[in-house]
UniProtKB/TrEMBL annotation:
Residues 399-465 form the Lytic transglycosylase superhelical linker domain. Belongs to the transglycosylase Slt family. One of its GO terms (cellular component) is periplasmic space. Residues 477-582 form the Transglycosylase SLT domain. This is Transglycosylase SLT domain-containing protein. InterPro entries: Lysozyme-like_dom_sf, Lytic_TGlycoase_superhlx_L_sf, Lytic_TGlycosylase_superhlx_L, Lytic_TGlycosylase_superhlx_U, Transglyc_AS, Transglycosylase_SLT_dom_1. It comes from Alteromonas profundi. GO terms for molecular function: hydrolase activity, hydrolyzing O-glycosyl compounds; peptidoglycan lytic transglycosylase activity. One of its GO terms (biological process) is peptidoglycan metabolic process. Keywords: Signal. It holds the Pfam family SLT_L. It comes from the Bacteria.
Length: 651
């Protein structure tokens, strides 16, 4: 075995059998991309000499892409067939079909076309098929699925839509349905065009959508809603009132009260409107929340209405009502860990200690945030329920030599981690669950920790705690945690939750690396400009991430709950969430975090921190303290006497 290092990421990979071939691959790859297309046949001998090398199909792909002509149809179709569904062929058929369409090779296009290749190619295929059919109307029924789209379709669809309309298949109902799709997906630009496709007596429905998508407050202007077609108008009203509720619940209530007597809403629509009003009030901690949660919390409502009804009552510490609302939930909801925990908490608060203890004892056998909190409330040690996967050496050895595994391994050696993950995902998709678990063990042993975590999650084997919570990059975390006096387990828990230890992870908003740092945050703690490549370096990322945790701990009185919430949502937002009048028990405050993502994030990080304490050989347990602590009120917000920074006063 050897240790391979790329951007400070240590991978314990097997012995390298392809070092010479890898060098040849890189040379060939460069030549295939740079040489004139008419000379690429000179490389055929060298390409085929690497037929046993795992990344051989990628060389074939490059050559076929560079020499894509009808003359090479047989080679291209053979490649697509042989490597069908494999990463080497991803996007290749799409490229080939676009080439055939551009050149007008109709029959070759239809031979190669497969369903589900996007609107442009689907329209092209239907257009070609119309040229060959004696029954166009039957074929044009397939156009409905293309029509029901919120955005304008490609130009290739225009002739198809013309034929569809000419054959009487574009009805007012279909136009109105597309108007609804476009409006609710935020594409107002297409609405005037669709309005013109309606008869005069129905164009006011499009006008109503145009009005409320410009300003949802227009829902309170009766001139937009004649109620001549209540089934369609109720869709406009429901969408607009729901949107308005999140911005201005009082105005939403006004519109609701206007149309309730007119019986325009279906029961599902009432659930949508009442939920939005109730949750808007609850999230803003408004006095009206209790009344509206009672109105909204009815059979058929979404599960989160029940969740927020319970959370609101917890904030008021109305324990008897907590029990009543939980008892009204569907049996499957009552069996979920959060409701079992809060039933126990309510019973305990009401003096029913024995019943509460029984529920706590059951929960304490489970490995999650609520199980760990339950164990703290009865003074027992949390149960990690660790049951490692028995290592099947022969199964793992077979798995290590599959073509997909070898391709993933080669891409890792080349430092092409995106391609490596793509091959690993393909590998997992081809395996039964038991072998997916073996893939998790293999990835763990190779130091591919993010793929080990992904593999165990896909297989559903949750109890191999050691491998699912690896001590990845332990030396870096230990060094930086010691330097900045941050709990090592907390830093590792954050990294595990943020990226699953994927060193080159990038979020949709630009957070990068192991600890998912925003460039601005990294620049702030580093006191210099930090590039994305720097954030992909594990050592640097851990240093900046742990340094930022230290900053948050200083600002938030070392409170791990507020620190983890701030790492996810930002400390300014967290300070806004502090209780206004009276401090709250930690578990109740967490349950009332307005952002669903942050609420789950904090619970996960707290649980992960305990798991990592055990993984690191420590007997520390933060949950007894969490069970006793309270979250301070906004009165604890103060200003540092020297720096002038906003912070929490020490409690």
């Amino acid at each position: 075995m050897l240790v391979f290092s790329h951007q400070a990421v240590s991978l314990t990979l097997p012995a390298d059998k392809f070092e010479e071939e890898r060098a040849q691959f890189l040379t060939l790859e460069k030549n295939l991309k740079s040489m004139p297309a008419h000379r690429l046949s000179l490389l055929d001998k060298d390409i085929h000499a690497l037929a046993h090398y795992p990344l051989y199909p990628y060389l074939l792909r490059i050559k076929l892409q560079r020499t894509m002509t009808l003359k090479n149809k047989r080679e291209i179709e053979a490649f697509l067939e042989y490597y069908s569904s494999q990463p080497a062929s991803y996007g290749m058929r799409y490229r080939w079909l676009n080439y055939l369409a551009a050149k007008g090779h109709e029959h070759a296009f239809l031979d190669s076309y497969r369903a589900g290749m996007g609107a442009k190619l689907t329209c092209q295929a239907l257009h070609y098929q119309l040229d060959e059919t004696d029954n166009p109307k039957a074929l044009l029924t397939d156009v409905d699925a293309l029509w029901y789209h919120g955005k304008s379709q490609p130009d290739e669809c225009d002739p198809l839509f013309y034929q569809w309309r000419k054959n009487g298949l574009m009805t007012p109902e279909k136009v109105i349905k597309r108007i609804e799709i476009a409006a609710t997906e935020g594409n107002r630009r297409i609405l005037p065009y669709l309005r013109r496709q309606l008869p005069d007596n129905l164009q006011y429905i499009a006008d109503a959508w145009l009005a409320v998508t410009r300003d949802v407050g227009a829902v309170n202007y009766a001139k937009h809603f004649s109620l001549k077609n209540p089934n369609h108008e109720s869709n406009v009203l429901t969408w607009a009132i729901e949107k308005l509720a999140w911005r201005n619940p009082e105005q939403a209530v006004k519109a609701y009260n206007t149309y309730i007597p007119k019986n325009v809403f279906s029961q599902p629509q009432l659930h949508i409107i009442r939920r939005a009003i109730a949750l808007s009030y609850a999230l803003d901690r408004r006095a009206e929340a209790g009344e509206w949660l009672q109105i909204a919390d009815k059979p058929g409502a979404r599960d989160d209405v029940k969740l927020w009804h319970v959370s609101y009552l917890l904030r008021q510490q109305q324990w008897q009502q907590v029990l009543a609302v939980i008892a009204s939930a569907k049996p499957e909801l009552q069996d979920e860990e959060n409701y079992r925990y809060w039933r126990a908490r309510a019973l305990e608060a009401l003096g029913n200690t024995m019943q509460a203890t029984v529920l706590y004892q059951q929960l304490a056998q489970e490995r999650h945030y609520y199980g760990f909190m339950a164990s703290a409330r009865i003074g027992t040690t949390p149960n990690l329920s660790n049951s490692p996967v028995p290592r099947d050496g022969s199964a793992i050895a077979r798995l290590a030599t599959t073509p997909a595994t070898l391709r993933a391994l080669e891409f890792y050696r080349l430092g092409r981690r995106t391609e490596a993950r793509r091959e690993w995902r393909y590998l997992l998709s081809t395996l039964p669950d038991e072998q997916v678990t073996h893939a998790g063990v293999l990835a763990y042993e190779w130091g591919l920790y993010d793929q080990a975590i992904v593999s165990f999650a896909k297989s559903g084997y949750w109890d191999d705690v050691q491998r699912r919570f690896p001590l990845a990059f332990e030396d870096h975390f230990k060094q930086q945690s010691s330097t900045y006096e941050v709990p090592n387990a907390l830093a590792m828990a954050i990294a595990r939750r943020e990226s699953s230890f994927r060193a080159d992870a990038v979020s949709p908003v630009g957070a990068a690396g192991l600890m998912q740092l925003m460039p601005g945050t990294a620049r702030y703690v580093a006191k210099k400009k930090v590039s994305q490549d720097t954030l992909f370096n594990v050592k640097d990322n851990v240093e900046f991430g742990v340094q930022y945790l230290r900053y948050l701990m200083d600002k938030l009185d070392n409170n791990p709950v507020l620190v983890s919430a701030s790492y996810n949502a930002g400390w300014r937002k967290v300070l806004e969430w502090l209780p206004a009048d009276e401090s709250l028990p930690v578990d109740i405050w967490i349950e009332n975090i307005p952002y669903r993502e942050t609420r789950h994030y904090v619970k996960a990080v707290m649980a992960y921190q305990h798991i990592y304490e055990q993984q690191l050989g420590s007997d520390k347990n933060i949950f007894p303290q969490l069970a006793q602590d309270v979250i301070p009120t906004t009165r604890a917000i103060t200003t540092h006497p020297v720096t002038g920074d906003t912070q929490l006063a020490p409690q």
